[in-house]
Amino acid sequence: MTVQRLGMIMRDVTGRTVVHSRAALFAGAAIVFAASASAEIASSSDTSGTLGEIVVTAQKRASTVQDTPISITAVSGADIQDRGITDVAALAAATPGVSLKSNGPGQTELEMRGMTSSGGNSATVGFYLDDIPMTAPAGAQNGKVVIDPTLYDLNRIEVLRGPQGTLYGAGSMGGTVKLITNQPNLTESQASVESILSGTDGGGFNHNDNFMVNIPLVNDQLALRIVGSEAYTSGWIDRIVVNPFPLPTNGGATRGNVGAAPIESRRKGSNAERLYGVRATVLWKPTSELTITPSIFYQRITQEGPSAFDSNPGTKAHYQPFNVAEPYSDKIVVYSLTANYKFDAFDLTSITSQWNRTSVQSQDGSENFNNPISGVEINAPGTIGYYLPGGTGPVQGTETDPSKQFSQEIRAASAGDGPLNWVGGLFYSHFKSSFNLYTAVENPSAYVDLGTFGPATTSAIWNLTNPTTISQYAVFGEGTYAITHHLKATVGLRWYSYDYSFYDYFAGWGSPQGGATPSQDYITQSQNGVNPKFNLAYEFDKDLMVYVTAAKGFRPGGGNQPLPTGGPLWAPGGVPLSVFPFKYSGGLWPKSYNPDTLWSYELGEKARFFDRRLTVNASVYYEKWSNVQVLELPNDYLLSDNGGTAKITGGELEIRAALGGGFQLGVSGGYTHASLTPSVHYTIQPFDKLPDVPTHTADFNLTYSHALADKYQFTARVENTYVGSRLDLTFPPGFGTGALTPLPSYDLTNIRAGIHADAGWGAALFANNLFNKQAYLENMVQLTLANPSYNRVITNQPLTIGVDLTYTF
Questions:
Q1: Could you give the 3-state DSSP secondary structure of residue 71?
Q2: 320-350: per-residue pLDDT in tens?
Q3: Residue spans of beta strands (DSSP E) within 483-518
Q4: What pTM did the predictor assign?
Q5: If DSSP codes are grouped into helix, strand and coil, which group holds residue 618?
Q6: What pLDDT digit, counting tens, does each position of 79-91 carry?
Q7: Which residues is 361 bridged to in the sheet?
Q8: What is the 3-state secondary structure (H, E, C) of 366-400?
Q9: What is the DSSP letter of 19?
Q10: What is the dihedral of CA 100, 101, 107, 108, to 10 degrees?
């Protein structure tokens, strides 16, 4: 196939030319050649093999995926590298039962089985780095976001679906994700390097460089392992300043024609990203029974701006009246100390950790504050304009989210292969998060002060600080007893207690009492209870198991920031106008919301056929989610409350097959149906749906492996991931309380082919997002006012073609 013919194919598939350089054409031609070569090699090979097993620690003791009677997906470190996965979001999208929202690097919110976490301050999915719980920031407007660590030199990733509160605590009512790192090797010096070089359509050159070095310092007793990463991802979103900026029409419901306005400046690739990270682990084994493992992890991510385009006009750009930058940064340092002592009857483990994280992001709100629907201008709508003197001027909001947590877990796990296996322990954590939002304007006299209803006199629109602390205590245990050779019963229990405190300081002319009088409040909660788990598993033989599980999940409550009680959009006494029928008792906004709980019931099977060449794992579930923490938006202010009851049904299916001739097939899919019985206070339409829950997800992958001569291994892979339509929050005109509108379904295809040599080197060519599709991932939550005339839509990376070079010493 000629390079010219490849270019024609790329144009035919995408509707436009997406390969712009000789280097990209060469890379694409090489991939096509490799794929055709693999088909020829496959036809001459009839070798076959069984599917490998992955050892997991989902139940805090070692077992395999097939022997663990819960719905779990595990991906080995080798598979992560072979698939070219570099972030948690890409893995989550390909895992059945998992959904996500993502504003970009370090801003991914994970959800499982319909357990959306749009309301409240706590996540519904637990996230662990080894045994360290990584609690998300409490008040971040971009969600309960997890860290986005580099995935280089991981041992595996475990995705546990369904409530995991018995062993993993209050943040795991929907499931848990665990990233397990490789530990130091006491006897062997090791090293590896990787460099991923690529180009993105509409962007530029990207690189991702990693290394690992393992040094035995004292043979069989002391070793050090260091992993480092540095990456740059070019941006593909343009930030365009136009002057004069057109005013909205139709009362603010229709955006001005920004595409036809004169361009003052253009910042190409405004969402470019950089990452620096290092992880160092020491393993000390002073005796055969005792191991001590201190570790430190540092990572910093910066991004020039969000990966979001304006839905109107729908090009890959964001339009502004002023040159207001929108940088983002996320820095985290994690310290941990793990000690394990092996007694004859049980293992005793202590995990001590402390992490500190700070994320900062800024966003432009200049256009949002000049929309007549906002009702914040002092003059008649549309008579001011943007530009000084007298105009509304530039507006920028900056959110700072410092958070930290200390945690201590002490647990014991039984040793041996007796009929009873158990694990139990104690857990304590102290979490602190301090959400800060500062939004300012240069010309306050153009706006209404909510306290005086006259012109504002301070530049601060919102000066908001919300320190939050949560202390948790728990006693947990889980035991599995072999009733017969085939039947096993598991009973788990976790007693928990937590103390919660929330302080609110809210100042500025957009605060509840206006610029002259800050609003202050202090809220505390204490709660204790029990999360039980029951599981029965029946093994017909070593290749067929069925199980049934009933488990309870729990999430803490929290506090709300105060809302205005007067002004043009609020009636006297705190009761909203009739267009906002929240119907709160006494006309007072709730200062806090209560915990929510979940009961989950699951039936599953795990089966292997044809001498373990075929694996079929499936599960179906029903969940009843009570007192659901929901997000309400009176006049677009954030307010969490307890809604009604959600009922969620669904299932997951994962199939892996060794087809022979070097081919392996993987097919997986998930189905989720979620309905909500809302409370009388819930006003986001449609009232009976949960946000951000795709009904269908699926993943298909086909891999090929073949030995070339005696020293080389050829591999090729094609993978397609599908995410169905889901409802996401928007702010259309006329509602004033937000609405859930559909995001279109999407599917993305990646291909990869390469050679690995026995000498340690490897090279693979790849094309990610092969057909250059623009997915609508999420409507971005804005730090400033929402804009009803358009949405800012988070999107994926366009077609990216490159080479992955590795060497292992």
A1: coil
A2: 999 999 999 999 999 999 999 999 999 999 9
A3: 487-507
A4: 0.89
A5: strand
A6: 998 888 888 888 8
A7: 328, 399
A8: CCHHHCHHHCCECCCCCCCCCCCCCCCCCEEEEEE
A9: -
A10: 0
